[in-house]
Amino acid sequence: MTLTAQETAPTTTDGREVLLEVQDLKVEFNIRGGVIKAVDGLTFDIKRGQTVGIIGESGCGKSVTARAILRMVPKPGRITGGRILYYRRPRHPKPGQPQDLQVIDLTTVDPDGELIRQIRGGEIAMIFQEPMSSLTPVYTAGTHINEAVSLHRLLPLKKLGDQMAETIMAYRHVTREEAREIAVQMLRRVGIPKPEQRVDSYPHQLSGGQRQRVMIAIALSTEPSMLIADEPTTALDVSIEAQILDIMRELQRTANMAIMFITHNLGVIASMAEEIVVMYMGKQVERAKVVDLFYNPKHPYTKALLQSVPRLGPKTGQRLASIEGMVPDPLNLPTGCVFHPRCPAFMPGKCDKIVPRWNQVGENHWARCLLYEE
Amino acid sequence: MSTSAPNGRIGETLLEVKGLKKYFPIQRGLLRRTVGYVKAVDDVSLYVREGETLGLVGESGCGKTTASRCIIRLYEPTAGQVLFKTRALSPDGSPQVVNLLELNREQMNRVREEIAMIFQDPINSLNPRMTVSDIIAEPMVIHGKYQKGVSEERIIELLRRVGLRPDHLRRYPHEFSGGQRQRIGIARALALNPRLVLCDEPVSALDVSIQAQTLNLLQDLQQEFKLSYIFVAHDLSVVQHISDRVAVMYVGKVVEMAGSEELYANPLHPYTEALLSAVPKPDPLYKSDRIIMQGDVADPSNPPKGCYFHPRCQYAIDLCRQKTPEFRELKPDHWVACHRAEELKLRGI
Amino acid sequence: MAVATAPLAVPAKRKPISQSYWSLVWYRFKKNKLGVFGGVVLIVLYVSFTLIPEFLAPYALENRSSFAEAPPTAIRFVDAQGQLQAPFVYGLERRIDPVKRLRTWVDDTERKYPVRLFVQGDEYLFLGLIPMNVHLFGIDADPREARIFLLGADALGRDYLTRILYGGRLSLLIGLIGQFLTLVLGVTLGVISGYYGGAVDMFVQRFTEFLAAFPNIPLFMALSAAIPAFWSPIAVYFMLTVILAFLNWGGLARQVRGLVLSLREREYALAAKSFGASDWRIMFRHLMPGTMSHVIVIATLSIPGMILAETALSWLGLGLRPPLTSWGTLLQDAATVRAIRFTPWLLWVVPPILVTIFAYNMLGDGLRDALDPYSGR
C-alpha cells in the first residue's frame, strides 16, 4: 500500500536517512476477561545503519512490537492504532535513474499479501532465540516450510545448504548454484568452520551457537535493509554470545543494515545499541541515546532496572537494589502511571491519578514520568 | 581462611567432594552395547564451608548441573567421594562425617533432610496438579514429619518468609508469575530445615527485576537459617554477586576455585580469564578487549588429550597437549588446574 | 535484619477462587457444544439403558407371547370411522397366506386398546431394589389377547423394544467396565515401564508387541473356548470383559509410557526424588496425574471399540450367549437373510449402537480439545 512516492526520506540532524518510523503504535489482544494493551502508544524511528535497542521485562510488549512491524501479530491480537512507515528503496536501482523512494504504511498492508511477503524476510529479516527450540512438534510440515522461508527458521531433516538456497532464491534472482555459493560465503562470514562441508550437514549436527550463527547467515543472505533480532543470544553461552554480537556488528558496518535489537540483557544492549527504548507494560517509558540512558537515566523504572543487575568488578554492597512487587496483571493495570505501585519516587495523589505524557527531558531524551511535568 | 568472610559467619567444611566422576554410557544398536562414555563430570573436587556460598560456573554442557545432582545422588556417580557432615544419622544429633555414596537407601533418605534443591525452571519444577500447600508440605510428608495443624502453621510461616501470602495456599502453580513460583520452590526447599541447598540456576529464567528480588531473598535466608549454598549458574555477574567462593568448570572438570573477589580480580586459569572478558558489561563506554576463544567447547565423549582447554587456549604449549594438569592449591585457598599458572600474568576484572 | 520479602504491590483482584487444572478443563469443555451434546446424550443413554430399562420397557425381558414375529404396532389416533380419538392400537389377528405359506399379522379393527402412560404390568425391581409393576407406557389389555410392540416382536413373541432396552445394559456396561480394567492395567504397566526403563521396560514392551501381533480372532476363540461351559452367563460376561481388557491394554500402556518418559525428566519429578520420595510416590503421585488428561481422552475414544468388539464377538457366537441379551446377541438374531427379508424391524438394534458410538466420539473430541496440552492456558 504505497501512500506516496517521494524523492527523499526524512533525515535527522546528522544527515542520516530514516528507514522505519513507528508512530503511536497500539496493539491489543482481545481475550476472555478483557483487552490486553500489549503495545500502547509506541513512537520511535530507526535510521539506516543504526541499531535501536528495545529493552524491558517479559510481557512488556517488545516482541509484539517486532511482530507488528512484520505484520505477524498472533491471534487474537491486532493493531488498533498508529502507523508504521517504512521508507523503501529499490534494491538495485539502475544507474542514472532517480532512486524512487516508496513510503509504505505497514499497518495497512494485507498481512497475507504479496507485498508484505517481499518485505518480511527479504527486506526486513528477523532472528529469534535458539532456533531449534522454536521448532515445536505441533506445527505441520507445511507451516514449517512457509514460516521458515519468511522467518528463517531451521527445519530438521533438511540440509543447511538447501534451506539457505531456498531462502536466497525466494528473495534474490539467482540460480540454485549461485544461491548455494552465496550460502557458503555467508557461512564463512559468520565464522562457521569448513563452510563447504557444513552446507551439507543437518541442523542437529550443529551446536547451539553454530545454529544461531547459521540463522544469522540465512537472515543476512537476503541483504536486508533491517534486521530484527529478538533475544538472539539469550540461550547462548557468553563466549558464543560475544562472537555472535561481533558478527552482527561487523555485518552492520559493511552492509549499512539497521538493527532493532530486542533483549532484556542490559550488558548486551550497552555494547550494541546506539539508541534505546525502554518499555514497561506495553508503554514506552524512556528513550535516549545509549550513554545518556546508562549514565543519566530519567525514568524511575530505568533507574531501578539499571541498579538491579549485578555487575562484575570489585564488590560494592551486599544487596542488590530491587524493584519491589510484581509485574501487574495486564488485564487490570494500575491507574495513572502504570509503574506507580512499584515506583520508589511515587507521589501520592498524582502518579495514581494522572497519566504521564511523553516529555522531552534532554536532547534526544524522552521519558514518560510526572517528575518531568509541571 | 577465606578472604571473603568478613563477619565470621563461615564455619568449618560442611561438604567435600573428591574426585567425583559421572560417565553416561553411549549405547548403540539392538543389544545396546556400550560404545563409549560421555564424561559429563570428570574428576571434580570442591568443598563448601558452613554458611558460605560456593558458585559453580561454566558454559552449558560443562557438567555443573550433573555434578550438583550427583552430590544428592539424583544420579549415581561413577566414582569419587562426597563427604558430608551430617547430624541426621547419629541418634543424639551430633555431627558425623560420612561418604554419601556409601550410604544405603534408607540412610541416604535421612541425610536428604539436610540437603535441599532449588531448580531452574519455575514452571517445570512445581507439579501443576498440586496446590501450593501440597507442594510445600511434600518434603514433610515424605519424611513422615507432617502433622495436621502444626505443619500447616509452618507452611504459612514459610510462605510469609519467602514473601507470599497465606491466601496463596490453596492455589495452583499456574496462577503465579515466574518469580512467585520460584519463591514457592524456595519455600519447599526450606521445609525440612536443610543445612545445604543446591541451587541449580535459580534465577536464570527470571526477569531482571525479579532476579534481584530472588537473589536478595536467598541471601537473607542464608543469614537467617545459616544455610550453605552451592549456586550453579552460567551468569558470571550473578555468581560473583552471591558467592563467597567460585569454582569454574570446563568439560567436566573444575579448572579453578578461589574466593570470588580473588578469582575475578586475579584469575589463574586462561579459561577463567577468557570467560570474564566475554561477559557483556552494562556500560556503553566500556572498552572491550575480549579474548577470542578459538573453536568450540570440547566434546565430553571425546575430549582432547592433555589439558581439555588447550585447543582454545592462547597460551598453550606442548606440555598442555600431552599431560593433564593437576588441580593444585597454588595460593592459599586458590586452586587451579593449569601447567603455566605460575608464569602467566592473567587479566581479571 | 533486613527482610527481602516483596509485598505484592498490586493486590490480585481477579479470580478470588482458585482454579484448579480440572476446573479450567471444565471451562474449556463447556464451550465445545458438540462435546457437551455427546456427553448429555451419553448420560441419557446410560440412565435409560442401564438404570431404568425395566420401567421404560412395556414388558419383562423374557415375557413371551403367541405373537411371534409381529411387526411394529402402529399407534393410531383416528379410528375406522374416521373419528379422532385418544391414542389406541388395534388387536392382532393371525393370517396364513396359503400360497406363500407365510404367517402374517393383520389389524383386527374390531378390537381397540387405548395406549396409556404408567400402566401396571410385569413385576420388576426398580433400580434392583424396589418392587414395582408400573411401566412408562402400555395398553389396557390382557397380555394374552393383545400387546403393543413399538419395534415389533421376535420369533418367540417377545417385545423387541424391551429387548433392546435390556440388551443395552450389558453392552454399555461392558464398555465401561472393560475400559476401566484396561485403564488400570495399561496405566499401571505404562507408568512402571516408563519410569523404570531398562529390563522392566523391555519386558513390558515386548509383551505388548506380542499381544498386538497375535491374531485376535484365533486368540479370542481360544480364550472363549477356555471358559468352561458350565459357568453361569454372568460369569461368562465378566470373563468376556476381562478378556477384552486384556487384549486392549497394550496400546494404552505404550502411550502412557511415552508420556512418562517425558514427564520423568520434568524437574518436579526430580524435586520429589531429591527430597527422598519413593519410586511409588513419584510414579503415582507425580507422574501418573500428568498422564490422566491423555488417558481420559484415549479411554473415551476407545470405549466404542469395546462396545463394538462385544457386539462383533457376540455376533460371531464367541461372546455372550443366550439367554443373556446384549446388542451383540440381538444383532446375531437380526443378521440373517431371512430376518432382513421377513422381520426387518430386528435391525432396530443398530441405531442405538450408532448413537452411542457417535456420542462417545463427540465427547472424546470435546475432551481432547479441552485437555489439549498444546493449546496453552
Give short descriptive properties of this protein.
heterotrimer, A: 374 residues, alpha/beta, Rossmann fold, 2 domains, eight-stranded mixed beta sheet, five-stranded antiparallel beta sheet, 13 strands, 24% strand, globular, B: 349 residues, four-stranded antiparallel beta sheet, 10 helices, disordered N terminus
Q: What does this protein look like?
A:
The complex is a heterotrimer of chains A (374), B (349) and C (377). Chain A is an alpha/beta fold and 374 residues long. Chain A contains 11 helices and 13 strands. In chain A, the strands form 2 sheets. Chain A has an 8-stranded mixed β-sheet, with helices on both faces. In chain A, strands 1-6-5-2-3 form a 5-stranded antiparallel β-sheet, covered by helices on one side. In chain A, helix 4 packs across helix 5 (176-189) and helix 7 runs parallel beside helix 8 (238-255). Chain A starts with a strand and ends in a 7-residue tail after the last strand. In chain B, the strands form 2 sheets. Chain B has an 8-stranded mixed β-sheet, sandwiched between helices. In chain B, strands 2-1-4-5 form a 4-stranded antiparallel β-sheet. Chain B contains 10 helices and 12 strands. Mean pLDDT of chain B is 88; it is low at 1-7. Chain C is of the alpha+beta class and 377 residues long. Helices cover 56% and strands 14% of the residues of chain C. The relative contact order of chain C is 0.13. Mean pLDDT of chain C is 80; it is low at 1-17 and 373-377. The chains are: A alpha/beta (374), B alpha/beta (349), C alpha+beta (377). Chain A binds chain C through residues 33, 136, 138, 319, 322, 324-326, 328-329, 331-332, 334, 341-342, and chain C through 2, 4, 6-10, 12-14, 374.
